[in-house]
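Now for today's protein:

——
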Amino acid sequence: MKSDVIIIGSGLGGLVCAKILAEKGKHVTVLERHTVPGGCLQSYRRHGISFDTGLHYVGGLAEGFRLHDIFERLGLMRLPWQRLDPDGFDLVTIGGETFPFVEGYQNFADTLADRFPHERKTLHKYVTLMERADHLPLGDPEVQTLCSINAYDYLHELFHDELLVNVLAGNALKTELRRESLPLFNFLHATSSFIGGGAWRLQGCGDDIVRLLVTDIEAMGGQVITNSEVVELLETNVTTAAARCTNGETYEADTFISDIHPQQTFALVKESRRLSRLFRRRIDMLENTCGMFTVSLVTDGSIPYFNHNKYIYRQPNLWSSAQCESHSVDRVMVSCMAGNTGISSSLGAQASSSSPAHVIDLLTPVPLSLFQPWADSRICHRPTDYQVLKKQLAEECIALAETVLPGLSEAYKPYKSYESYKSYKSYESHEPQKPHKLYTSTPLTWRDYTLTPLGSAFGLRKDSRQPLLTILSPRTPIPNLFLTGQNLMLHGLEGVTMTALQTCQALLHV
């Protein structure tokens, strides 16, 4: 059966496009190479315990804010979201001093002004811009202007206190904090929605979002087909006509949307009169952002749940151009699973400070070059020296996190008794095996599961010096082939969702 729209890849961008287009009456087919859909929203289970991969928290879910309205439309507000502490949803520690990121634009400015009174006026000017940027449609001309302004230069022109410039970037570890190229719009977006519309954790795992979207897509007549890796896009009369998969199937459609990396997308088009050599070369020359190293710790329950995230920096200069070139850990984000949901997403109880922190994630940016020696290896088949490097990085992450979270290095060690472990499995009917207490992922892990080139954490690098070159449109030179996902303009849950809406608007207005 021929589809109206075929979507390549079932990450958040692909699934959001699929649901919106299915609502518009389109027959949609999503093709996913992996055994399960979800992309960076995938979760995994080890010994009955669930671990998230790319989802840790999201901003802007308060009523009246953009993402709340979008999630309401998508049906995602049905999920159990928990609001992080409005008086400090992120705690940023630089040089031993901790700065809370509080909810509310003016509250945020006033709180920092108590510490930096000489910058009070400029702080209020800054949050006014932040609030405006948070409400701009992606197609607004002002967005293009903000994308052409260097974030580092702007902050230094506005503020005179070097420490404040670093503090304002304190929770931007969830983007590539690159001094010479990061656009101001992307920098503002990494923080603004959290301050304006609150920071929220899902009481469950990313799989819950995936299951809900897939269920709704299928209920409207769409289909999500796994184990279907697209290896070629076949063209007829300068438009894409069909997708050929490794399983031998060929799927035809009127329109195609690619939710995979643009470099991989255009590699699927073997021959095309629409894709010039110059265009292909331009896409292939685009740089990818750094990778992320993640440590997931299963604790013994001795550390209480904390309803915020912790950002810890060993050095005060967050904006070093070499921040993703260092081979040692000098910054780490610490995130706590919401109560018991790290073990069972069916347990919907609100987490509190009296609840134990069952699963704690540590994240730190790493250069892709660090793992280049093992680029030819595949998951579960890595050599010993790769394992040694992972162990070293994990120990460095834990040591840095323990500077603000005492007892962490003891909390994930093997259980002292079977009774202390059994409490984690009380909802299981079978006798468990004792699990490992530490799990890690590297850029190569991301590459193997999501096919992201080299395991880049944030997709293509956006550059304020070349915004027209590095920020891609959903449209491509092939009239019925569109792009979506984090590689276009924005990454993260909100950014990818907004980009998916932009893709659907471009497609529906063709």
Remarks:
- Confidence is low (pLDDT under 50) at residues 339-349, 415-435.
